[in-house]
């Protein structure tokens, strides 16, 4: 009954940079579950587990396959109810979707604009053509054009985090005194940026930085065990 | 054991426009509690209930006084646990603070920039000097200067709601299938804008508009019973 979590990797198998995969890693750690992480390249995903999912993270647990980070968190919450809760009740589960919507509509696009060229540099040569083509189409610019705009995006990043900055003046985690899955949703985004980019946009004295460091400390510093370009 | 809710009014006692007071009204309705609303002018607050609070909403319940909309919601949740929950558990309570932080750091400042001159127009003459002075200091501009910038702020408003727009594609309320206090936090902001401003910035076909209409429908259309400049 080993749990397997398929995640995403760069050319270096230890470079597991995907924000969505980090959410799933932290959710499994939060539940106190043992699991084996198997990092894949983009081009490996379609030939894994019979092509069950086009994306990672993908979880295999005792014959069950689940993809999508939020669906994985919901699966873990339902399957392991006696382990620490990821949502803190139905209200927490519903409002975690708002945190996800905020992270993916405000934070993720900004990180893409900052770091898409640096992500491409980290990928396995086999993944690079797919990534370049799909991202250049999505962003309407070349990766090199995006890199040229990156400093302006870094300068604008700080203000996008204002809601989280205001929150962590009041409580140590989005989940309150202790973290919940909502924390891992936003942690995943900043961990992605930390791993792939040399351009870290937050000041050491920023409350968001202090919150992020608290997340990096969790579960015996799970988040610090990956090599990060931001140091 | 009558519950009294002190709210804010304009020159017209029926013009109860404060976003924070609307949160408290909706929280009381959600709990199914009878209450008497007593609208005050800004300059009445300090001489009400012995100057207990400098701000409204302020709740008096059987000798207890509570001010601040979130504190009122927490008081109601603890005092009336057998009534419908405002948070849906501890996780929902914690994450409602993130919704509050988002609303107050992203939505409220934008509404102030759109409508501060129109709010001033609605106030009782006794309140107007205090309001002008405090808002001009806070905003670093005259009310008339803010009014001149208002169309640009209206044009930028739509994009600020993107996280809520993404969410309501997935579920009818922030609270999930049914509303929670988190919905009233954001409803209060848009209800404020609807009441004070002729400049309604959202398209009829916008998913946020549909969500707002669902909120206006709640509790026998409580939110529609106030006169609104946006119609």
UniProtKB/TrEMBL annotation, chains A, B:
Q: What keywords does the record list, in alphabetical order?
A: Transferase
Q: Which residues form the GST N-terminal domain?
A: 8-84
- Residues forming the GST C-terminal domain are 89-231
* InterPro entries documented for this protein: Glutathione-S-Trfase_C-like, Glutathione-S-Trfase_C_sf, Glutathione_S-Trfase, Glutathione_S-Trfase_N, GST_UstS-like_C, Thioredoxin-like_sf
Membrane-crossing residue ranges in chain numbering: none
One GO biological process this protein is involved in is:
glutathione metabolic process
Q: Does the keyword tRNA processing apply?
A: no
Q: Tell me the domain of life.
A: Bacteria
Molecular function per GO: glutathione transferase activity; maleylacetoacetate isomerase activity
| SUPFAM superfamilies associated with the record | GST C-terminal domain-like, Thioredoxin-like
Q: Which PROSITE patterns match?
A: GLUTAREDOXIN_2, GST_CTER, GST_NTER
One matching Pfam family is GST_C_7
Tell me what this protein is called: Glutathione S-transferase
Organism for this UniProt entry: Gellertiella hungarica
């Amino acid at each position: 009954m080993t749990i397997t979590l398929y995640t995403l990797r760069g050319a270096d198998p230890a470079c597991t940079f995907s924000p969505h995969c980090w959410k799933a890693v932290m959710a499994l750690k939060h539940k106190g579950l043992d699991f084996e992480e198997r990092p894949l390249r983009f081009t490996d995903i379609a030939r894994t587990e019979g092509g069950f999912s086009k994306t990672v993270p993908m979880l295999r647990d005792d014959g069950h396959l689940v993809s999508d980070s939020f669906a994985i968190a919901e699966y873990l919450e339902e399957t392991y109810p006696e382990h620490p809760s990821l949502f803190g009740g139905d209200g927490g589960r519903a409002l975690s979707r708002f945190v996800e919507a905020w992270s993916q509509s405000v934070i993720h696009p900004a990180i893409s604009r900052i770091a898409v060229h640096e992500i491409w540099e980290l990928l396995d040569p086999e993944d690079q053509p797919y990534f370049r083509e799909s991202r250049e189409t999505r962003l309407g610019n070349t990766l090199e054009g995006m890199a040229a705009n990156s400093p302006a995006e870094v300068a604008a990043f700080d203000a996008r985090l204002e809601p989280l900055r205001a929150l962590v003046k009041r409580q140590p985690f989005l989940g309150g005194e202790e973290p919940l899955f909502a924390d891992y949703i936003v942690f995943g985004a900043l961990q992605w940026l930390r791993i792939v980019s040399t351009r870290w946009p937050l000041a050491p004295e920023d409350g968001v930085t202090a919150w992020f460091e608290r997340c990096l400390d969790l579960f015996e510093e799970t988040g610090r065990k990956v090599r990060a370009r931001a140091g």
